[in-house]
Amino acid sequence: MTTFDRTQHTQAPTMRWPRITFIRLSLLAMLALIIASWIFVLNADGAQNHSFLSAETFNRFKDFFADLLGVGSSGTPAYAQWSEWRSTGHLAYDTLVMSVMAIGFAAIFALVFFMFGARNMMMGELAPYGSWFWRGVFFFVRGIFVVTRAIPELIWAMLIIFVLSPGLLPGAVALGLHNAGILGKLSSEIVEGLDQRPIQALRSTGAGRFQVMVYGVLPQALPRFVTYLFYRWEVIIRTAIVVGFVSAGGLGTEFRLSMSYFHFTTITLLLVWYLILVLGVDITASYLRRLAR
Amino acid sequence: MTSTTSRDSAQKPRLLESRRVLTLILLAAFVGSLLNLDWTTGFIHSGGIDAMGEFAKALFTLDLSADTLTSAISASWTTVAYAVAGLTLALLIGIPLGAIGSGVLTRSPWLRVTSGGGTRFSLAFFRSIHELVWAWLFVAAIGLSPMAAVLALAIPYGGILGRIYAELLQDVPDAPLRSLRSTGASEWRVFWYGRLPMALPDMLSYTFYRLECGIRSAAIMSFVGLGGLGHEIRISLDDLAYQQVWTYLLFLIGLVVIVDVWSTMVRRRLSE
């Protein structure tokens, strides 16, 4: 891990140039990307009416912050009204429900497929016999994981809203699909990193592929799977509001409406609920994670 | 072998009990969440199945016209540029705040608690708000500027990087640090010549992993009106031009896969 080219020290007298390694090339490529990206972003920014670093930007930030706090606007700010707290509280509950549903969908999907996405189960040391069929299943399942993972939750939601009627369900399905890919990949990697001796012992008793899965792999893999589940739940609750922008339901929908009606103090209230949710889920998840260990 | 198995089974009931409770809690939560849905009306709206069929059919008649391909390539570049620029800023946030938040820069317990705690709190705040929410707030404040997308990416990513960097800097093996201290090095020197070089490969590895996430996050910045692949997907969806949607989706998937493969290769070599 910390071998920062010991070879270079031993060979230093004979070598003038640092050895070309993949890491060095990657870092150079990254540097080039960074420079190109900033040139692009700054040029695109210069094309705006005003550049980003200016007094005008600062003033706009100041005004926006004042709007959020309701300074200088007529009427009581939304965050100072009990009824507003109650109605947005319902939305926060909806968002929480959406996140639980989503992690449930993702967990079911991942639990069904993850064994078939583990290389050692399908065609490696743990496979009772090699066969092109199981090899095909492996690549198919990994392909599903890649595609579901590569498409962000929000874009899933945009697609799903064409099929499912608005409400909590499309949001939960969108969140679930993206996280299914992530959970699937992570849990397949758990299986690939498992201690193989108990499983091989089981195999030597004549257990078949599915018996090995249920009695050998599952008990070993499940605790870490549950840990990943809670870790993803923390991410999902942060994204649930974003998915709500397109699928009706929860804090996200109200956030979007308040933005378009310029109800700035309502936005503040929604953000407060959002932070409460995130904090609550973080605490609950870390408690449950300890229980799973 | 046999002795360990029997010992395991002797311990099993107690272990199983806490796990059984956990399983019950999880199942109850999931079922409870499903009960919140309105089961009386159908979940699929009229025409939903048709739309899905059309959408699936469109995959086989991809729009590969020159126009679509050029705009897909330029949108891909916009997405990459936002992601990379955002990640650079995130590094500028994450490295110093992570170093301070880890509390390894000072030996005074009082400073460690105040500066470390304060930094960790702000990092937690940065990352608790999703990048798209940050983006929307920035756009509302300063208008449609690419800097809004870059900043919106940089803040939560800076928060995550800072937290992970802090943990990595704390987890460095202690023995080499002790020998540095025994030569009279200050905590600052120990950080510079001991902790940082030892934690660097892991820090780099995590940063490369985040690049993949950054691409996906940059792609959805379009939702608030900033360009990129998500923007094209959204426009094509509004036009019901499913063939184009597929082209852009495949570009997005390709982009994420390329970055994923690259970052996996880098990380495998770093952990060797």
Runs of chain A in which pLDDT lies below 50 for 5 or more consecutive residues are none
Give the overall shape of chain A, derived from the CA principal axes.
Answer: globular
The helix content of chain A is: over 70%
Largest sheet of chain B: none
Question: Mind sketching the topology for me?
Answer:
The complex is a heterodimer of chains A (293) and B (272).
Chain A: H1 6-11, H2 22-46, H3 55-69, H4 82-113, H5 119-122, H6 132-150, H7 153-160, H8 168-192, H9 197-204, H10 209-243, H11 251-260, H12 264-292
Helix pairs in contact in A: 4-8, 4-10, 4-12, 6-8, 7-8, 8-10, 9-10, 10-11, 10-12, 11-12
Chain B: H1 2-35, H2 48-58, H3 66-101, H4 109-128, H5 131-142, H6 146-170, H7 174-182, H8 187-219, H9 229-238, H10 242-270
Summarize the model shown.
The complex is a heterodimer of chains A (293) and B (272). With 293 residues, chain A is mainly α.
Explain the overall architecture.
The complex is a heterodimer of chains A (293) and B (272). Chain A is built from 12 helices and no strands. Chain A is an all-alpha fold. With 272 residues, chain B is mostly helical. Helices cover 81% and strands 0% of the residues of chain B. Chain B is globular, with a radius of gyration of 25 Å. Chains A and B meet through helix 2, helix 3, helix 4, helix 6 and helix 7 of A and helix 1, helix 2, helix 3, helix 5 and helix 6 of B.
